[in-house]
Design brief:
Elements (H helix, E strand, L loop, with lengths): L17 H11 L11 H21 L5 E5 L8 E4 L4 E5 L23 H16 L12 H21 L4 H16 L7 H16 L5 H15 L1 H15 L6 H15 L17 H57 L21 E5 L3 H18 L4 E7 L5 E2 L1 H12 L9 E7 L6 E8 L8 H18 L4 E7 L3 E5 L8 E4 L8 H12 L7 E7 L6 H16 L3 E6 L11 E4 L6 H14 L4
Parallel strand pairs: 1-3, 8-9, 8-12, 12-13, 13-14
Antiparallel strand pairs: 2-3, 4-11, 5-7, 6-7, 9-10
Helix pairs in contact: 3-4, 3-5, 4-6, 4-8, 4-9, 5-10, 6-7, 6-8, 7-8, 7-10, 8-9, 10-14, 11-13, 11-16, 13-16, 14-15
């Protein structure tokens, strides 16, 4: 009803008419034989009402209230609570356009699909929990009782939100759809009706339901109608009501009396009617409409922000789950590639067929390779060295070196009768800094176009494995050859005695799986070590192979692992993001890898 405050806390629901009593008696006596059971829709509303009755105790702390959902309430309001009979009614229209079969109030979180209906439920629950006072019978229907109900609306919601601040969004939805809409287009320009708008809207702002920016336009309009002094007086009254106890009816009646006196209204008379002929009625209705629009805009922005936050959290969770799944798969790949039998591993192959290994044999290391391994080991140890950290502390007591100036200052402080605060002892502590280990993985392409690189990479793999073994017990390196399969050439933690030779006669590429095997076996994504992945390839991959490998390389770079790409062909096509070194002579591979490994170790953080 426009511009009329609905009485949310009448002492009892309206009495049933004679026709309603007759229908009830007829059904109780078994006379209604045309409908032996409720219709399907009626059954759904009964289920919804029962679920709301079950949820109500968490809102009110009361177990005695019965909720009913009907097409319209007996009071005519969208929702109503009757304290003397402990009944709470909700109009089914509030749930539109949802079909009752889809409504599940028993499921926490389902209320987000019908915030206006749940907000009406929360509002009436607030009355059930906090509206414990009633106007005396002689004052029923008077302006005094109406003023008390105006103040009680925001007071009950304020008390409820102190207990359950998370219900604010639902109460806001109710204010928008059940309270503010009633004022739009109504004739609200006389002092009583303007004060009604202030008591139902501005008071909710001070109760924490609405935001100041949402009510600014209405406040300016009401200031023009009521004047700043009167509006300030009314605000002081509803602010005092917000701090009044639930059962302090006498105090609420005094607040209501002060409300009537401020407006110059006879407290014992009927509330003044609205004045539809007032020229300023449209102005106030427009201001209330702007409140509605601002609340809707703020709610939409909040919902959008929550949706973006939820989407971002879901994306992060999915990315984390995908990363964990890839890590598990990489660990399985590494286990198969670096198994003791060193058989080639083909991604997606069940393992029943015989796979051709690129390994052709082994040879003893040459004298030059042994010397190169020694030089690289010394370079790596130098790169891993970290200066000792020095810490200087001052104290009032030994041990340490005596600072005579501070000692004299301490004696002077003691002689003056003051508490000595000088610190004459200086202690210098030198602590060694841990040296980071080295992790280097080499993936060499053994497709037919890479024949000239096999011998230099085989030599580099032995040199690197020997040097890392001589550098630090925790340093490790590994080399794999890949075409359609991945084959281990050197394995982590195993120092090869001979140089493993291999040929380049394969077809296809599985760089992604080779990268996974090296990443998992050497912990290339974990900080605290010098980490390097070396790829020796011409880069002639099909788009799917290139995209899959690029994803792995990007993840390694983001984790802080350096990626070096060695090319030998005249027209290489390395994947983006790697540091590319084009070698005119394949024999330079060992030098390039040693230089990159030393740089990775020198810049590693422990």
């Amino acid at each position: 009803m426009a511009a009329q405050l609905h009485n949310h806390v009448p002492p009892a629901p309206p009495a049933l008419s004679e026709a309603e009593w007759a229908a009830a008696r007829w059904e109780d006596d078994g006379g209604n034989l045309t409908e032996t059971r409720p219709t399907a829709q009626r059954a759904h509303w009964l289920r919804i009402a029962a679920a709301l009755s079950t949820r109500l105790p968490e809102l009110t702390g009361r177990e005695d209230i019965l909720v009913t959902c009907e097409h319209g309430t007996r009071s005519g309001a969208p929702a109503a609570f009757y304290p003397t009979t402990a009944q709470l009614e909700i109009d089914t229209a509030l749930f539109a356009p949802l079909h009752p079969a889809t409504i599940r109030p028993a499921w926490p979180g389902d209320e987000d699909r019908y915030p206006a209906a749940w907000g009406a439920f929360v509002h009436e629950a607030a009355h059930a929990a906090h509206s414990r006072w009633y106007a005396p019978p002689p004052l029923r229907g008077t302006a005094l009782e109406a003023a008390g109900h105006i103040l009680e609306e925001s007071r009950a919601e304020c008390a409820h939100l102190r207990r359950r601040p998370g219900d604010r969004r639902y109460v806001r939805a109710t204010v928008r759809t059940l309270v503010l809409d009633d004022f739009t287009g109504a004739a609200l320009a006389d002092r009583w009706q303007a004060a009604l708008a202030a008591g139902l809207v501005l008071a909710r702002r001070d109760a924490g339901v609405l935001d100041p920016d949402e009510t600014e336009t209405l406040e300016n309009t009401l200031t023009g109608i009521l004047g700043p002094d009167l509006l300030h007086t009314l605000a002081a009254i509803w602010t005092a009501a917000h701090t009044t106890g639930d059962e302090d009816g006498a105090a609420m009646m005094e607040h209501a009396r002060a409300w009537c006196e401020a407006l110059g209204t006879d407290a014992t008379g009927t509330p003044p009617p609205s004045n539809p002929t007032d020229a300023r009625s449209g102005e106030l209705a427009e201001a209330v409409g702007k409140v509605v629009s601002q609340v809707q805009a703020n709610e939409a922005a909040q919902v959008a922000a929550e949706a973006r936050g939820a989407a971002a959290r879901a994306a992060r969770a999915q990315a984390k789950a995908d990363q964990a799944a890839r890590a598990r798969q990489a660990a399985k790949t590494a286990e198969k590639v670096f198994a003791s039998n060193a058989r080639p591993f083909t991604p997606g192959d069940p393992g029943k067929g015989r796979k051709r290994s690129p390994v052709t044999g082994a040879r003893p290391p040459a004298a030059g390779e042994k010397a190169a391994a020694g030089r690289l080991a010394r370079a790596l140890r130098a790169a891993a060295y970290r200066e000792r950290t020095t810490t200087v502390t001052a104290s009032a007591a030994p041990p340490g070196r005596l600072n005579m100036r501070q000692a004299l200052a301490r004696d002077a402080q003691r002689a003056a009768g003051a508490t000595p605060i000088a610190t004459p002892w200086i202690r210098t502590v030198h602590r060694p800094t841990p040296t980071p280990p080295l992790r280097v993985g080499i993936a060499v392409d053994v497709s037919g176009s890479m024949h000239s690189a096999t011998a230099p990479i085989a030599s580099a793999a032995w040199i690197l494995a020997k040097a890392t073994a001589l550098t630090d017990p925790d340093s490790r390196s590994a080399t794999v050859a890949y075409d359609r399969s991945v084959t281990a050439i050197t394995a982590p933690g195993r120092t090869p005695k001979a140089v493993t030779q291999f040929s380049a006669k394969g077809r296809g590429h599985c760089l992604a799986e080779a990268t996974d095997a090296l990443t998992a076996a050497l912990d290339l994504t974990q900080p605290g070590a010098g980490r390097l992945l070396v790829i020796a390839s011409d880069g002639y991959y099909n788009p799917d192979e290139a995209a899959s490998a690029a994803t792995r390389l990007t993840a390694l770079r983001n984790a802080g692992c350096a990626v070096l790409w060695l090319t030998f062909a005249p027209n290489p096509r390395p994947l983006p993001g790697a540091t590319v070194v084009e070698l005119t002579d394949p024999a330079q591979a060992a030098t390039a890898i040693a230089k990159a490994a030393t740089a990775a170790l020198a810049t590693a953080n422990t």
